Amino acid sequence: MNWFKRKSYPEFWKAYLSSFQKTQQQNLEHIRFVVFDTETTGLDTKNDRILSIGCIAIEDLKIKVSDQLELYLKQDKFNADTVKIHGLLKEGKFIKVEETEAIKFFLEYVKNAVLVAHHAAFDVAMINAALLRLDLPKLKNRVLDTGHLFQKTKIDTSKTHFSLDELSNRFKIPLHDRHTASGDAYITALLFLKLISKLNTNTKLNFKDLERSHKRIGLL
């Protein structure tokens, strides 16, 4: 029977999995973080599609400007209403790749890094939906959400969700290239380091200190 046969995965997925054979670091200065953002045709993780992915790496708790990835995807689905937000037209000046190639490049870039995003559940869900369309399992990476990290600072407990704009204004981070995947990834990277600085006041933090302390709900 076919369902007895062992599933065969593409080489790029096998290479991605092999990166997790290394011991997962707990010391923040020894962790490679990849801050990422996706621009999409909408907010429906099942039916909408990724338009672009922006990534930037952090190592030794410093942003590595030379270590970035920017991908634009060919649009099989098009939502004119969202163009005014992200500015990405169906046809445009950017070189665009098929979804399969974009996911391949993304996995090759992130490897076993800790992923960081603002409202990370959405971005992770969009990547996982693309993986599902390729008949591949979900992402294996550990994930941090800058929204959750801000909650840990207890600077403002008036509500549970703060937008990237709100937190950027609070920490005086310029909103350069806002609503582009690469621009938002860079803004989130700056926010992430500021939050780590706020949390790392008395005792030396490790990765477990940054994880959510309460029971995980939903995507994360």
Structure description:
With 220 residues, the protein is of the alpha/beta class. The protein has one domain: Nucleotidyltransferase, domain 5. Helices cover 36% and strands 16% of the residues. The chain is built from 8 helices and 5 strands, in the order H-E-E-E-H-H-E-H-E-H-H-H-H. It has helices spanning 11-18, 80-86, 99-110, 120-133, 146-153, 164-170, 181-199, 207-210, and strands spanning 33-40, 50-59, 62-72, 114-117, 143-145. Strands 3-2-1-4-5 form a 5-stranded mixed β-sheet, sandwiched between helices. Helix 5 runs parallel beside helix 7 (181-199). The longest helix is centred in the last third of the chain and has 19 residues, at 181-199.
Jot down its keywords.
single chain; 220 residues; alpha/beta; Nucleotidyltransferase, domain 5; 5-stranded mixed β-sheet; 36% helix; globular
Helical coverage, percent range? 25-40%
Would you give the CATH topology? Nucleotidyltransferase, domain 5
Q: What are the secondary-structure elements, in order, as H or E?
A: HEEEHHEHEHHHH
Overall mean pLDDT score?
Answer: 88
The number of E-state strands comes to 5
Are there runs of 5+ residues with pLDDT below 50, and where?
82-90, 214-220
Q: What percent strand? A: 15-25%
The radius of gyration over CA amounts to 18 Å
Structural class of the helix and strand makeup?
Answer: alpha/beta
> Superfamily at the CATH H level?
Ribonuclease H-like superfamily/Ribonuclease H
Q: Could you tell me how far the N terminus lies from the C terminus, measured between alpha carbons in angstroms?
A: 35 Å
Question: What is the total domain count?
Answer: 1
CATH top level assignment: Alpha Beta
Largest sheet: 5 strands, mixed
The tally of helices reads 8
Oligomeric state of shown chains: single chain
State the CATH architecture.
Answer: 2-Layer Sandwich
